[in-house]
Amino acid sequence: MTTFNAHDIAKAAKTAFQEAQLIPSSERVVALNEIRKSLEAHKAEIIRANEEDLREADVEVKAGKMSATLLKRLDLNRGDKWDSMLQGILDVAALPDPTGNVSYASELDDDLELYRVACPIGVLLVIFEARPEVVVNIASLAIKSGNAAILKGGKESNRTTTLLAKAISAGLLKTAIPELYIQAIQTRAEVSSLLELDQYIDLVIPRGSNSLVRNIQNNTRIPVMGHADGLCSVFVDEHADVTKAVRVVLDSKIDYPAACNASETLILHESVVYTIWPTVAKALLKANVKLLCDSVSLDALKQLSPKPSNFETLVSPSTPSSYDTEHLDLILSVIVLPSIQSAIQFINSHSSHHTDSIVTESDVAASTFCRGVDSAGTYVNASTRFADGFRYGFGTEVGISTGRIHARGPVGLDGLVTYKYMMKSKAPLGHIVGEFGTGKKQYKHKPLSAATVPFLDVLCTMYRDVKVTQALLDNLVGALRGLPILVLVTTAGSGAAIFLERPLVPGVTEGCEVSEETTIFLLRAVVLVVGNSSTSSSLMTSGTIAAFGRLPRLVLAIATSSSFVSSVSASDTGVLPLARVVRARGFFATPLEDESVSDSSPRVRPPTAVLQKLSAWIDVVARVSA
Questions:
Q1: Domain end marker among 436, 467, 498
Q2: What is the mean pLDDT of residues 364-374?
Q3: Is 209 in the same domain as 249?
Q4: Phi and psi at residue 163, in whole multiples of 5°?
C-alpha cells in the first residue's frame, strides 16, 4: 500500500465497493469467518508486533510524551481483549443483513411500485487512536453492512494495525469480496489528502481525542460522524437506593476508566449529601479514585470518622474546569445540586451528550431525567459503561455518535446503511409523469406490504439458471483465438469445478469438449482472460462484443496491462464496447504488470493470489448451488 498515493487508495476503495454490490450478501458472512480464521492463524506475529508497539509507547510515557491511559488502550493482549475481538467478528456475522430491507413501499398507480430500500453508505474513512482492535471491529461492520473502508490507526500502533490489516486482506483473498475492500494507511499526510477526496469517500468516522475529531470536522467536506469527548455523569437522586448508588457509581468509574463511556462527573442531590454520599465516597476511595469535590460535598467528607487512610492524598477541592474535563483515569469530579431540574441543566451544559445515568426509585424522576437530558444515552439505575455496541447486541460498534442526524449512540450495522428508492413499472408501455395531474390520472399512494424488493429476488433466480450454448462458446473461442486464456467451468450435472488451461494459438488443440450443459456465470463459473495492450484490440471484433454482451455477467479478468480494459473503445458495429459491458455487468478487471510476459507467450499462468481468488469463487458456486 505504501506505493499508492491517497487518490489511488480512495479510488481503489470506491471501485471495490461498486464491484461488491453485485456479490451475494451471504458472501459477506463467509468473508467474516475467513477473516477470523486468518487472524487466529497470525495471532503470534500480531501479538509480537503489539509488544513492540507497547515497548516503544512505554518509552514515550516515561518521557512524558504519551499518557498512561493511551498506553493501556494500546495493549491487544490485555485480559480477554483478543478473544473478545474475535468473538465480535462472529457476533457481527450472525446479525441480520442490514441491507435490502424495505422501510417504505407504495403503489403509486396500477402496476407502478415504489420501494425505499436499505443500502450501504459507500466508502468509510475511519480514523482512530491507539486501540488496534478497532481495525477488526470496523472491518467486520463494514463488510457485513456492504461498505468498503479505509482505516487509519495511531502511529503508536502502526506495527499492530499493519499486521491486522494484512491478516484481514489474507482472509478476503479466500472469498469473492475484493481484496482492497478493506485498506489500512499509516501517515497523517495520507489522511489529509483523503479528506479532500469527497468524490470517492462517503463518510468519515473519527474515534479519539477532542482535538482529533475537531480537526477532522474542520478540514473536510465529507460528512463526519463521531463524538469529540466522553464526558459522562451519574446523578444520585433524592429517591436513590444506597446499594444501587454504590454499585452504579463505582462501576461507571472503575470498570475501565480510560473508556469514553466511563463517568467523569458525579452529581449529588443535596438531600443525599449526609446519607448516601459518605457510603459512596468510601467505596470510591477504597478503589483509589481521586475525588475532586465542590465545597458542599467536601465538607461532608471532612466529617467522616474515622477518615479513610488515603483521604488526604485522594480528596481535594474541584475547580470550574473539573466539570469540563474528560479525566480518562481514576479521577471523579463531584458536585451537589438542589434539584433534578438543576442536574439536567448542568448535564446539558457541561456534558458531551454521550451517556448519563440517574440512580432513583422514583418513576417520575426517571422519566424527567430521560426526557430532559439531551444525550445519546440516558439510563436509570444502570452503569454508563453499558454504552457499547457489543453490550447493545450490535456485535461491535464503529464508534459512538453524539450527533443528532442519521445515527446516535453506539453505531452498529444500522448506522452504516442509508437507503435508496427503487421504482418499477409493470405496465406494457411503462409510466410517464405527463399522464398524471389535474383532469388526468391521480396517484393511488396505496401502502404495500413488503420486506424486500420482489424484482431483486427474481433477478438472483434468473442469474442462477442461465445456460451458455455451444454456439456462444464457439463465438468466444473464435474471437479469442491467438490469446492465452484460462477458463473455469462447472457442469450443471456434476456441480464439479474444473480448471481448463487452453493455449488457444493456431494449430494447438483446445483439449476440452464443452457440452450445452456448461454454465458460465457468477454462481456457476469464472472466465479468466489474460491479455495485454497489443492483444486487447483483437478482442474488439463485433462477434466478441456480442458474445460478452450475451453473458449475464463475467466475473474476473486479469490483464498484464491496465490498458487491457482502459484502451477499449466503441466498435464500428454500434454494439456496446467491452468496457461498458464490463461495468454494466459487474465484471471487474485487475491489471498485473508482468514484464516477463510477452505477446508471443503461448501460455500465461496467473500468480498464486489469483488462483486463490478463483478458488474462492468456486466456493461461492458450491454454496449457492447447493
A1: 498
A2: 94
A3: no
A4: -70, -35
Q: Is the pTM of this model over 0.85?
A: no
Q: What is the pLDDT of residues 276-335, one digit of tens each?
A: 999 999 999 999 999 999 999 999 999 999 999 999 999 999 999 999 999 989 999 999
Provide the residue range defining the domain that includes 344: 232-384
Residue 243 lies in a domain: yes
Q: Give pLDDT, residue 518.
A: 29
pLDDT score of 4: 57
Q: In terms of domains, do 195 and 89 share one?
A: yes
Residues 309 and 374 in one domain: yes
Report H helices in 266-362. 277-286, 295-302, 311-314, 340-350
**165-204: per-residue pLDDT in tens?**
999 999 988 887 888 899 998 888 888 999 999 999 999 9
Domain with residue 275: its CATH number is 3.40.309.10
| Beta strands 148-152 and 102-109, pairing class | unpaired
576 burial via Cβ count (<10 Å: 0-12, 13-18, 19+): middle
Whether 195 maps to a domain, the answer reads yes
209 and 84 inside one domain? yes
Q: Is 364 part of a structural domain of the chain? A: yes
CATH number for the domain spanning 194: value is: 3.40.605.10
Dihedral angle sign, alpha carbons of residues 397, 398, 401, 403 = negative
Distance CA 519, CA 588 (A): 19
Measured between alpha carbons, how far is 124 from 127 in angstroms, rounded to an integer?
10
Q: Which comes out higher in pLDDT, residue 521 or 5?
A: 5
More confidently predicted of 498 and 182: 182
Write the burial class of residue 112 (CB in 10 Å: 0-12 exposed, 13-18 middle, 19+ buried): middle
Cell (9 digits) for 173: 483473498
What's the structural domain count of the chain?
Answer: 3
Do the beta carbons of residue 150 and residue 201 sit within 8 Å?
A: yes
Tell me if 421 is assigned to some domain.
no
Distance of CA 32 to the CA centre of its chain: 12
